[in-house]
């Protein structure tokens, strides 16, 4: 499907604005990774977040939580970045100031080449000690969580669960990028989870042009200057091609 990129947006991009983008699970959907809240296919349609993505759930049954994350890590391990990830990596090279803020834990943005990257919800490919967050090597393919070599506590994925604080430096940098940019993209996220969901509104209040790329409407759609209805893996390459003549 051909996507029409608004001419004003093409013009703005060519003027090399200070830019930032917030991505969510939708960007990895075309890599075959399930989103969280999509009605039929989202993870939360099949699993209860309170049983799996909270510190309390982990305390109750670390091995159950471990196995769920092991399954998701395997899915990610068999998948790869898609043209949407690659187009965002190209934008970093094409614009002087482009900060990519992601809620995704799959590591695909880095794998696609993005370097100015803030991972707000951690990274599923890292394991840390659940007691003091010391990095642990290897994932352990066993059915139970591996034990920390220093203190014996079970390991956990280095991701941010409900009720946990986000990495402070990344969060501060993300709010700074939102406050100071002229162009802000919200891509493949339902903007339902705080504090990340506030970032587009912070950018908007600071005067940025707000662009949403999503096949569905979200809580942000009514406020965005441009809503591009479509899949990130198709729209983003079209945007880069239209504005810079570069194929992704
Ligand atoms: C496509 C597409 C295609 C499909 N192309 N698009 C204020 C008000 C109310 C509540 C709170 C509040 N502040 C904090 C809270 C509580 C809570 C929260 O926000 N709850 C809400 C549910 C109401 N927030 C927290 O608990 C956060 N912590 C916190 O605030 O701590 C405070 C604190 C401070 C100091 C000390 C201690 C505490 C933490 C939030 C952590 C979220 N974690 C998860 C799991 C990560 C690990 C894992 O992966 O398992 O992060 S939840 C889950 O949601 C995951 C995601 O990153 C996050 C966002 O989801 P996302 O990416 O938007 O996915 P979906 O599925 O929702 O949307 C996909 C979109 O893609 C859809 O729109 C589709 O249409 C679209 N799409 N295909 C483009 N091809």
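-> sequence recovered:
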């Amino acid at each position: 499907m051909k996507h029409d990129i608004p001419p004003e947006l093409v013009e703005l991009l060519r003027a090399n604005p200070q830019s930032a983008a917030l991505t969510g699970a939708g960007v990895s959907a075309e890599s075959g990774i399930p989103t969280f809240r999509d009605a039929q296919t989202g993870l939360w349609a099949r699993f209860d977040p309170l049983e799996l993505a909270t510190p309390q759930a982990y305390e109750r049954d670390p091995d159950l939580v471990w196995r769920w994350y092991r399954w998701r890590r395997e899915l990610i391990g068999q998948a790869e970045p898609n043209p949407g990830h690659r187009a965002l990596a190209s934008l970093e090279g094409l614009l002087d100031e482009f900060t990519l803020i992601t809620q995704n834990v799959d590591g695909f943005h880095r794998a696609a080449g993005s370097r100015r990257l803030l991972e707000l919800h951690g990274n599923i490919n890292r394991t840390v000690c659940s007691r003091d967050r010391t990095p642990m090597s290897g994932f352990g393919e066993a059915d139970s969580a591996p034990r920390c070599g220093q203190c014996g506590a079970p390991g956990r994925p280095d991701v941010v669960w409900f009720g946990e604080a986000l990495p402070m430096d990344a969060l501060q940098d993300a709010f700074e990028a939102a406050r100071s940019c002229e162009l802000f993209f919200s891509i493949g996220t339902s903007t339902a989870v705080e504090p990340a969901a506030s970032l587009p509104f912070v950018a908007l209040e600071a005067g940025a042009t707000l662009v949403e790329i999503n096949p569905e409407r979200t809580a942000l759609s009514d406020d965005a200057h441009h809503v591009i209805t479509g899949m990130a893996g198709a729209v983003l390459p079209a945007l880069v091609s239209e504005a810079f003549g570069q194929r992704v």
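The first strand starts at residue 19 and ends at 23.
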